[in-house]
Amino acid sequence: MEAEALSAIFDTAFTIRSSTQPFQWSIKLVPIDCGDDLEEEESSNHVMVNLVANIPLDYPEVSLPELDVEILKGLSPENRKELLKLAREEATANEGMPAIFAVCEVVREWLADNNVKGLDDASMHAQMMRKAKEAERKEAQAAQQFEAQKTIDEMTEAEQEELAVRKRRAEGTPVTEESFTSWWNKFCAEMEEKKEEETGDIANEEKEKKRIMAERKTGFEIFSEKSGVFNLEKLEAAAEEMENEVGDVDEELFDDDEDLDDLDFDSDEDDDDEEDDSDEEPDI
Q: How far is 26 from 18, CA to CA, in rounded Å?
């Protein structure tokens, strides 16, 4: 579960070197996160490390992770020892709970405070310059803390409370077992809710398609409405209406069995022949 959370936070910077127990994880840490822009990352960050964590079988309930620091850029062996000490102290402070993220934050803060060129220079002059700069940094930090404390003492209770809220927002929420479990449960619930919404949308689309198909008229119905030729109900109504208009037929009129053969149908033909003869010109 912790590996999934670290993968979501650090993305491609998190690597699982060994997926069998005991696990081994690696996190690339830089002072300034430049996303996927490797050129910007190389130019903006003068120091880089890999934090390597070997995860025991009884971590985090009983054992601490076995930590190591691999120098990627700009640091000396002395810097590595200092970072490793900080990392182990932070892991001890978070004993009994997932501690890798908290360790990463401590290491990253140190890298951000020491993001300068030349830390890997092992010459005597470079070491003296680094010690002088570190002394100046600590002195400036102490002076800043003194001024901050002095200012806090002069603040009202409401102002101190507001300052504390701002500080918590800037520093973020410390990762504890309870906060991590709460975040993970919330994350899983959101993913499940999103999945249900997507499934519901697909079901609604299928339902709407079925409704449209059910309400769609057939070609016969559309043609019948437009032409009226194949509207059976209208045809039956028209036939019934015509039958009512004709009324009753007197069948006795058709009972006379006269022999139609006695009728003279040739008279018209004879008349036509006579007319044709009259039209002929007389012989002279």
A: 10
